[in-house]
Q: What sequence folds into this?
C-alpha cells in the first residue's frame, strides 16, 4: 500500500468542508486505495463543532483514513502536508461586497502562508477556495516564498462546472459530452466563461459549441451572466453560499492535478500569470490548463476575439486592483 498523503482542510467545521471531507475519504480525490492522514483546521470557537465532524468521519469506518487530527493550531495543521484545501474564510453573505470579503480574509491568508512556508512540504499542492479566492491565493503565495508559485492555485473549476452544465442543458446532452470550456480571470462577476473553443458530442459527432448552439446573442449575454452570477443566485435562494457544488469542484480541481487531464480536454484553474494572453505577470488568473505528471501548463495560441479580449482585460484589471488593495491591507 502507498505511503499516506497528509491532507489539510481549513475551515473544516464549515458547510463546504462538510461535503469536501466526504469526497476525500471516499477516495474520489486521490484514489480509492490511497491512504490519507487528514488534518482539520478551524478557529477555536468552532472546535466543538469540528469534534462532531471528526466523530462522523470515524463513524464512516473508511479504511484509507489512517489518522484524523482536529486542531485550531496552524503549526499542527500545516505540518508536512502534501495537499491543502484552503476553505477557511469569512463566507460571503447576501449584500456583501467583495471589498468587505477582501478586508476580512486577506490577513488570514497572510498568516496561513507564513505557517505553510515554515511547515509544509515544498511539494505541497494548494487550492484556495475561500473568497476572494484569486487574491487570497496570491497573498498566500507571497507569504510562502519557499513553496514554488506553481504549487499555489485557486478554484475556478466551480465556474467551469457551472458553464459546462449550462451548455449541456441547452444542448440536451450530459455534461461529459461538453469539453474545453474555459474560465478566464477572476472568480467574480467579471470572470469570462468562454466556449469559443469548446466542443460538444451530439449523436456521436463532435461539433464546436458555437455551431451547436447557433445563438451568438445567448452565448455573449445570458450564458455569461448566468455563470457570472450563479453564486449570488444560490445565496439568494439558499441564504447561504454554494457548498456542495464548491466542494465537488475543489475535489475535481485536486483530482485532475494529481491524475492529469484527458488528451481531448483541458481544465480551468487560477494560477500565477506568466504573461500569457497579455495578462500582467504575478496576478492569480484563471487559464485553460493541461496537466501531466502533476505539472500544469497553460494552453497556448488560442485565438482571442475582440469580444473576448475586452472581457480578459476587464477581469485582469479587477484582479490588479484587488491585489493592490490586499497588499495595502497586509501592510497595515
A:
Amino acid at each position: 500500500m502507498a505511503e499516506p498523503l497528509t491532507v489539510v482542510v481549513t475551515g473544516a467545521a464549515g458547510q463546504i468542508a462538510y461535503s469536501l471531507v466526504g469526497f476525500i475519504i471516499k477516495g474520489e480525490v486521490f484514489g480509492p486505495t490511497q491512504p490519507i492522514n487528514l488534518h482539520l483546521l478551524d478557529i477555536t470557537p468552532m472546535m466543538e463543532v469540528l469534534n462532531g465532524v471528526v466523530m462522523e468521519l470515524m463513524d464512516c469506518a473508511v479504511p484509507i483514513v489512517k489518522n484524523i487530527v482536529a486542531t485550531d493550531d496552524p503549526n499542527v495543521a500545516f505540518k508536512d502536508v502534501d495537499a491543502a484545501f484552503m476553505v477557511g474564510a469569512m463566507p460571503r453573505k447576501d449584500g456583501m461586497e467583495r471589498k468587505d470579503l477582501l478586508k476580512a480574509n486577506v490577513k488570514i491568508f497572510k498568516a496561513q502562508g507564513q505557517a505553510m512556508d515554515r511547515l509544509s512540504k515544498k511539494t505541497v499542492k494548494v487550492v484556495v477556495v475561500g473568497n476572494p479566492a484569486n487574491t487570497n491565493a496570491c497573498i498566500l503565495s507571497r507569504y510562502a516564498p519557499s513553496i514554488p508559485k506553481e504549487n499555489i492555485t485557486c478554484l475556478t473549476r466551480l465556474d467551469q462546472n457551472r458553464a459546462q452544465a449550462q451548455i449541456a442543458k441547452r444542448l440536451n446532452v450530459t455534461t461529459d459530452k461538453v469539453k474545453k470550456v474555459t474560465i478566464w480571470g477572476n472568480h467574480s462577476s467579471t470572470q469570462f466563461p468562454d466556449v469559443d473553443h469548446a466542443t460538444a458530442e451530439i449523436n456521436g459527432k463532435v461539433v464546436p459549441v458555437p455551431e451547436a448552439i447557433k445563438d451568438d446573442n445567448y452565448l455573449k449575454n445570458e450564458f455569461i451572466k448566468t455563470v457570472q452570477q450563479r453564486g449570488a443566485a444560490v445565496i439568494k435562494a439558499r441564504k447561504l453560499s454554494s457548498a456542495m457544488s464548491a466542494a465537488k469542484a475543489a475535489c475535481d480541481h485536486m483530482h485532475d492535478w494529481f491524475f492529469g487531464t484527458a488528451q481531448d480536454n483541458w481544465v480551468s484553474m487560477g494560477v500565477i500569470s506568466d504573461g500569457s494572453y497579455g495578462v500582467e505577470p504575478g496576478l492569480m488568473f484563471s487559464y485553460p490548463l493541461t496537466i501531466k505528471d502533476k505539472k500544469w501548463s497553460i494552453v497556448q495560441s488560442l485565438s482571442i476575439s475582440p469580444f473576448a479580449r475586452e472581457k480578459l482585460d476587464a477581469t485582469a484589471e479587477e484582479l490588479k486592483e484587488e491585489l493592490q488593495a490586499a497588499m495595502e491591507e497586509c501592510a497595515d
